Amino acid sequence: MQFSLLGPVRAWSDEIPVPLGPPQRRAVLALLLLASAQSVTTAALRERLWDKTAPSTAISAIQVHIHHLRKALASGGGSHIDTYPGFTKDDVSYALAVDPGALDTTRFESLLDASEAARNAGAPASAVERLDEALGLWRGHPAPELQSTPYVITMRRRLTDLRVDAVRRRASCLLDLGAVTRATADLLELNTEHPGNEKTVVLLSNALCRGGAHPRALRLLSTELDRWQHEYGLRPAELVRERERLANGGAMP
User: Fold this and answer.
1) Hey, is 86 helix, strand or coil?
2) Helices 198-210, 237-247: crossing angle, 10 deg rounding
3) For the packed helices 104-120 and 150-176, what is the interaxial angle rounded to 10 degrees?
4) What total of structural domains would you count in the chain?
5) One domain, residues 143 and 188
6) pLDDT band at 191 (very low <50, low <70, confident <90, very high)
7) What are 9-59's pLDDT values in tens digits?
8) pLDDT of residue 251
9) Taking the mean position of all CA atoms in its chain, how far away is CA 86?
10) Of 74-88, 155-169, 220-234, where does mean pLDDT reach its minimum?
């Protein structure tokens, strides 16, 4: 059985979708999958689902969701949710173990590691293939069924940061391969989706210069420096150095 959290929560077996029920039930499944086979107490599930807005029926609702998830997973012939008793209802724990590679978040990070190994071995084309595969796993906002509790916010930020870094790494490899147009397009889109990242701006300015758009690269850096000065009263050293280098006709790295 396969599971996906890089977008709406899904499960399928032999390419057949497993019906998981309403959004909150899929949210419970997501939390069990994110625990990586470690047991999670009912109290922790309640906090991660609702934080301080948990209803009085939270524990019974979680128990009902676990019951129906067990039936759904069994229908797919796949994973099993284990229960570990506790002294109180809050202490009861649940764990869901899945096969390595059955969860897209795990595959995503494994592919990132493989791409880094390929690039370090001097194989940027292979690194791009791994990064294409990794980024292709994304289908939208991670597990949108989950409310934005502190736990979920941290999880989403971490995954999003990894995705942003993966796009940058792929663009860098593409530049190594001379695929300037594709790298520039990827970085322009990334800078629109996640503006203000110094590493993205510097790499984009490099890509623009390699494509013959030196004035545009200088304007990009100047605009970004002005924004930092206006919003934060700062001028990031990396952006300053890059602008000075390009303004002085520095060669592309």
Assistant:
1) coil
2) 20
3) 30
4) 2
5) yes
6) very high
7) 999 998 899 999 999 999 999 999 999 889 999 999 999 999 999 999 999
8) 53
9) 34
10) 74-88
189-224 burial by CB neighbour count: b if 16+ within 10 A, else e? ebbeeeeebeebbbbbbbbbbbeebbeebbebbeeb
Convert the pLDDT of each residue in 108-118 to its tens digit: 999 999 999 99
Q: How far apart, in whole angstroms, are the C-alpha atoms of residue 9 and residue 192?
A: 26
Domain edge (last residue) among 53, 71, 96: 96
Sheet strand arrangement including 16-17? 2-4, 10-13, 16-17
CA proximity to 7, closest of 114, 105, 81, 154: 105
Q: Domain boundary at 67, 96, 125, which?
A: 96
Rounded Cα–Cα distance for residues 174 and 172 (Å): 5
Residue 62: predicted pLDDT? 96
Using the 8-state DSSP alphabet, how is residue 62 labeled?
A: H
- Helix residue spans in the chain (DSSP H): 23-34, 42-50, 58-75, 104-120, 124-135, 150-176, 180-193, 198-210, 214-232, 237-247
pLDDT of residue 90: 82
Q: What is the pLDDT of residue 147?
A: 95
Task: State which residues form the domain around 229.
Answer: 106-247
pTM given for the model: 0.91
Place of tokens 């701006």: 201
Residues 139 and 71 in one domain: no
